[in-house]
Specification:
This protein has 203 residues and is of the alpha/beta class. 43% of the residues lie in helices and 19% in strands. Helix 2 packs parallel to helix 4, helix 3 crosses helix 4 and helix 5 runs antiparallel to helix 7. This is DUF5753 domain-containing protein.
Length: 203
């Protein structure tokens, strides 16, 4: 089964309610997987980065501006990384480290935060190099929580629960993670991006 809810409906009162929904997913499912090719996973975002992202959501969709409340909830949901009860397997595209969200200072702080959390027991973080061969056609971002997949489209949020479709998402995630670098390889890509945002375009 696939269900779709327009963002202007689910965000009709602002961004905070959707953050509450994500917190509920996390409470129900102690393990999750996410693939995000062009931005930083929400549960690893700094306050400054999240403020820019949610501000863009408000501006684009014309919804009530409750960005500080939405950001506060997004920060609260990050406690799952430190509570010892959750585990997340996350794959980013290298482009996520270069998509300009808020400018160099915000991006440096964001990358520093990822470097700090890279060794968390709750987090397995892989990064697919931009030129890496991937045994998978290019696909959109998605998150797996238990027996649900969540996909964010321009106009709506989509939840997929059909078992056959879930198997395809799991297969896709496996192929994407096979192409990713972990540990020292991921750290090297992060430090390269950190140098870029520090002004060393040749670093």
């Amino acid at each position: 089964m696939t269900s779709s809810v327009p963002w202007q409906e689910s965000l009709s009162e602002g961004t905070e309610a959707v953050q509450d929904e994500v917190i509920r997913w996390y409470r129900r499912t102690p393990e999750g997987r996410a693939y995000i090719p062009t931005m930083i996973w929400g549960t690893l975002q700094t306050e400054a980065y999240a403020t820019v992202i949610l501000g863009q959501v408000v501006d684009f969709l014309g919804i009530p501006d409750d960005v500080p409340a939405g950001v506060a909830k997004r920060m609260r949901r990050q406690q799952v990384l430190y509570d010892g009860e959750h585990r997340y397997d996350v794959v980013l595209g290298e482009q996520a480290l270069y998509t300009n969200i808020g400018g160099p200072e915000v991006m440096r702080e964001q990358i520093d935060r990822i470097l700090r959390d890279l060794a968390l027991p709750s987090l397995t973080l892989g990064i697919i190099p931009a030129s890496a061969p991937v045994d998978m056609l290019p696909v959109h971002a998605f998150s797996l929580h238990g027996d649900e997949v969540h996909v964010e489209l321009v106009s709506s949020g989509v939840t997929v629960t059909d078992p056959a479709e879930l198997d395809l998402y799991r297969k896709a995630f496996s192929r994407l993670s096979d192409a990713a670098l972990y540990g020292d390889g991921a750290e090297e890509l992060l430090r390269k991006a950190r140098s870029f945002w520090s002004g060393d375009r040749h670093g």
